[in-house]
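Hey,

The postdoc asked me to send both predictions to you directly instead of through the lab channel. I've kept everything plain text so nothing gets mangled by the mail client. Protein one:
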Amino acid sequence: MAQSLEPELYNWIAVRAYQLVVPVVFIYLIFMLKKKGVRFFYDRNQAVKTDSEKSLISWSITVWTIVMLYMTDGYVNQAILDADMDYLVRRRLFYFTKMCFLTAFMICIYTLHRLRNISFSQSTRVVLYSSTCNITMFFAQFILRGYLENDILLAAYRQVSAIHYIVCCLAILYLPLRLFIADVKLRKRDY
């Protein structure tokens, strides 16, 4: 029986959306850094007065770590896939590095929030929960495909991966869109 192309298509669309959203949100973050100043976001001695400021700082930490993951993960994955080694060793290395990168990503988010002494925003929590699901799927694939040579969860892996990318896109877009809509409403009232 032929395998459906739908999970591959969904994953491709989700990855392309992620590749589009991350640079756009990063540009918005640079704009916010210029507008509010770097000290506002990353100086621990800088007072944070409102929940919206805490949410903005938490969002910026999450976006920075996503950008770092985005910039490094793809190159490492491609280097592993292009490596001249046994395909099982390559699979094991691929899924193991995916688990390591995502775990390091989550640890960085946690550590930077503790260093800045703020709590997680709703967007950050959603990204962390989604990443936990993705790490679990990487571990399952590491065992199943790397050691047991079993593709039973391949379609589910692609769907979970696609959902993870879409959830991350929506989570990091939520705050900028909310601020943009509030700004537009404020400008309409001024006229």
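Protein two:
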Amino acid sequence: MAWTRPTPLSTSSLEELYVGMSDDLALMPDAVSPEPGSGDARADASDTAKKRQILDGARRVFFEHGFEAASMNDITRAAGVSKGTIYAYFPSKEALFEALVNFEREEQVDRLVAFDVTRRDIDQVLHEFAVRLVSAMTDPRSVARLRMVVGVAPRFPEIGRKFFEAGAHISRRKLGDFLTIKAEEGLLVLDDPSVAARQFLDLTVADIVRRVIFGLDTDLGGEAIAQNATQATAMFLKAYGPAAT
């Protein structure tokens, strides 16, 4: 078959072809561009989930074996991640333990120390808070955590300090803020709300939690916790209620 030279496209034909291609491109859907920061948000979410996975594994190991006996190999197996992944987030066993203590303590305090400042039934508010606080602090997991912190604090005082600041210190500050508001409303008579808050916390937790920590009350029931809250609230209001003056 004889070869036939292709007919060159005229200028007008080239223009028609270009226009047609442009029209086709115009009908194609636009490529979806990621929203600004969406990649960072996904990375942050993945990062948080991985840290939580590691902390969950560490919690099981620390509570089962204690801080001293726990190994990073144990935590690696419990968390289901590589040792390299753990060290990418936490440079040492001490740093991991500290992160776990801070995470659990802050999470617990946020739930416990929440006061409705609009309420005026201060006796009931304090009673409910005392029940919540003691119930949480005498929970077996909380008791195990406190024992571990007390055990490692001499070697790692920073862990003990942060544990206190994330728990007792925040509780005292938030309770003090609530008591200040109630004093301004005339429901309490206080010279120093911070001192009053510390005294109420001591009345509420000092004896009962100490007994649990030393294993003297291993099965504390709701009735005993409620009775303790009633006594602490009554003694506090006897000292700081308006009738006291």
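Summary for protein two, as requested: Residues 6-34 have pLDDT under 50 and may be disordered.

Thanks,
C.
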